[in-house]
Each structure stands twice: as structure tokens, then as C-alpha cells.
Predict the structure.
Amino acid sequence: MSRLSNTIAHTGLYTAVCVVIGLILTPVPNIELITLFVFLGGYIYGIKQGVIIGTTGGFLFSALNPWGSGLAFPPLIVSQVIGFGLAGLTGALIYKTTRTLSEGKLKAVLFGLSGGVLTVVYHLLITIFTSELAGYSLTQAGIYFAGGMLFGLWHIISNILFFSILSPPLIRAASRFSFNTRLKQI
């Protein structure tokens, strides 16, 4: 198999894993692992594949969501695709800034902060896109965002914990696979 074929296959398979991981937890409100796995896709595969994994996985996750397809509400699916694309991009950028750090508490804290910030940005994107369609004023959008954050707080806290606790062992596990020359350089 050529290098391009390998890249396409790995990106496609990893995207499918992200979607399945995302769909598994849909019955539980505001608890999800898809953002973490998309972030790790960027961390493992780099910027281009991370963004592809995020945008494609985000689109499929939203479109196939059994609790309501984002296809019925285009601003929602657009905001989700952008949010997940940012998660893949952030994972790649965090790799570049942390690859020289030894594994430890600092890295776990950086992963946790990344998860928290990405979740707040995700909620902000959804608020902006849905508020625009609803015709909300800036004040109304702010109230909508603040009210949603009361519910979103659990989402933010859970992602901080998932990112900080699960990222290091998942990265260690990914570095053991022969296809991953990027992580073997660490």
C-alpha cells in the first residue's frame, strides 16, 4: 500500500472510531468522548488529518445522532463541524508544544485545560450559530449562552477530567502501534 493509501485508510478508520465513540454515550446528557478522541486524532496524526478527522467525524456524528440529526438544523451541524475541526487542530498544536515534555502532571493539566477550553468554545459556537438563526440580539444571545452554561458546566468538567486522565494512557497505547511513526519520535 502506498503512503497516501495508508494515510487515507488510517484517517478514515480513526474517524469511524470517533463517530462510534461519540454515538455510544449519546443517551447520557453532556457526557461525551468524541471531543477527546478527535483531539487525540490531531495529536496522533497531525494538523491536516486532525482537522479532517474532526470535521468529517463531527459531520457524521451530528448527522447520525439518534436523538436528532443536525441535518434538520443546518446552523447546528455547521457549528458542530467547526467545533470538532478545532478539536483536531488543537490536538495537533498541543502535540507540537508538549512533545518535548516528559509525561507527568504538567502534561495532564495541559490536556485538561485543552478539554475545558474546547468545550467552552464548542458551546459558544453553538450559541452564536443558533442565536443568529433565531434572530436573537447580542444581549439575548448572552443570556442564552449563560443559561446554557449552567447545564454545560457538567460537560466542561467531565471533558477536563476525561482529557487529563485518559489522554496520557491513550497516547501511550497509540505510540505502540507500528503505523505511528510520529509518536515513536517522542
Summary: The chain has a mean pLDDT of 90. The domain at 3-180 is CATH 1.10.1760.20 (Arp2/3 complex 21 kDa subunit ARPC3). The CA atoms of residues 102 and 186 lie 9 Å apart.
